[in-house]
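Suppose you are handed only these lines of text.
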Amino acid sequence: MKMSGTYEPLTESAAGQLITRLGLFSKEDILEVEEIGDGNLNLVFRVTKTETNESYIVKQALPYAKVVGESWPLTLKRATIESQALRQFRDLTPGYVPNVYYSDETLAVTVMEDLSRLDVVRKGLISGKQYPLLPKHIGEFLGNVLFHTSDYAISPEAKKVLAAKYVNPELCKITEDLVFTDPFFNHDTNDFPEELLEDVQKIWGDQSLLVQVAQLKKQFITEQEALLHGDLHTGSIFANEDTTQVIDPEFAFFGPIGFDIGQFFANLLLNYLSDVERSRRYLLDYVKETWEVFVNTYSTLWNTHQVDAFSKVEGVLPFILEKTFADTIGFCGCEIIRRTIGLAHVEDIDSIEPHRTQIAVKKEALQLGALLIKERKKIETIDQLVTIIQTNTKKKEQFV
Ligand code: SR1
Ligand code: MG
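From them, the structure of the protein bound to 5-S-methyl-5-thio-alpha-D-ribofuranose can be written out as follows.
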């Protein structure tokens, strides 16, 4: 491959040469290389040694958003943020993040462990598969990362130095626009069928909803509580019955910790809504268990590793958890609405057939999203949240 020190998109053969040059395979090995990227932004090559079937992933950022095309330029710096975050997450939660073998800032490349033995969780959930350990693993992942990178685990100086390494303005702007702004106004990035127009206009005209979304957007922009993954949907997680691996933290930055939890919940709930024939009750159990494991992990770390003078003051931890719970529900509502009518939909609901069923599910998603945003501060427990979701999504039999 050309090692000119300048960026160029990799070809399949260049991805194979990179792996050889790194010494991961030898020159004599016969390699098979396949571009397998199905996300919105990047090239992803799998390089396999045919003789042994060993493989590596070469991920490369493109200088534009693949989902839109070259008209939407996008910084290559996100590859550096991503490899840095993967390494940081792996230090904090070794079992839940793939190994990174190499990263190159100029080429915007990360070479990492191939997780093809696992499922992309979104795909698995769509096919009806269950992942019993997913909530435990994601709850522990979130509890560890969101505690250990916060002011409660490290000094204010160390936290600010760390946060400076994750200043990620371009990718944050995407979220500010696509999650917190465009779906709530008549914006040309929005994407929805005309049958939803009335429901969407109701959202655009709901002043009390818009005030709540403005509050959540302000929190996303201004609060630097801990290092977030920044895009923790079910397409950013690989799993099987006993393993869970979090990938793709190119949106990582310091933000409000409920954002990661809320995005994960929203994507579970979109899958829950998508099955109109059967109740995927287990997804509500995942939401509940993830929250409970997160609270346990975070609280244990608080009691054993807290460095702030307020750690032993009664009421401080409950205050943080209550705030995080309300934020989680609100961010979850925004993500549900955005994945339904904004840019970058999810297959869970876009693939529903017949079309009229898809429309009915999307209407329900919009109502649930708006309800969660508006009611978030009144919902006190995870059981209440689950009940609210159930009672507002009971009409499944009418869709078929
Ligand atoms: C232009 S990027 C669209 C979406 O893809 C990513 O996965 C993020 O969710 C982003 O909002
Ligand atoms: Mg991604």
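What can we learn from it? DSSP finds 14 helices and twelve strands in the chain. The pocket of magnesium ion (ligand 2) is lined by residues 39, 231, 236, 248 (CB under 6 Å).
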